[in-house]
């Protein structure tokens, strides 16, 4: 009979993934000093079908509270407001040819940019998932 593998206890040095939301309907998935940023399901739903995406270049700095790009739909052009400060390390090039990925899979394939966080403590100022859900429900009432 084969021995069952024992699970190793988690070490405190393992990085933890944190998902936070801004009141501008962007999510931030952070792990250590790197973070992906995308539009929330509620955000993409309110914009409608995304037809074009304008994002910063790799190496650009984004500044919390300032626009870093745009999502264009049939209804509107939605300005993307940076939820945190950082430097762009990657841009989702798939969105150039398939901007609808931001509608179809906003939390995974439809991510917008990846950044190096300037200050990880800024994440604490964003909403946790439960708080964001309450925020969205409050706006619908």
Rg over CA atoms: 17 Å
* Element-level helix/strand string: EEEHEEEEEHHEH
Q: Overall pLDDT, averaged?
A: 89
The helix count comes to 4
Largest sheet: 6 strands, antiparallel
Q: Biggest sheet, strands in spatial order?
A: 1-2-3-9-8-5
Distance between the termini: 59 Å
* Helical residues, percent: 10-25%
Strand segment tally: 9
Low-confidence stretches: 1-14
Q: Quote the beta fraction.
A: 25-35%
The general outline is: globular
Walk me through what this model shows.
The protein contains four helices and nine strands, in the order E-E-E-H-E-E-E-E-E-H-H-E-H. A six-stranded antiparallel beta sheet has the order 1-2-3-9-8-5. Strands 4-6-7 form a three-stranded antiparallel beta sheet. The chain starts with 16 loop residues before the first strand and ends with a helix. The protein has helices at residues 41-47, 94-97, 101-104, 129-140; strands at 17-21, 26-31, 34-39, 50-54, 61-62, 67-73, 77-81, 86-91, 113-117. The longest helix has 12 residues, at 129-140. Strand 6 (67-73) and strand 7 form a beta hairpin. With 141 residues, it is α+β, with helices and mostly antiparallel strands.
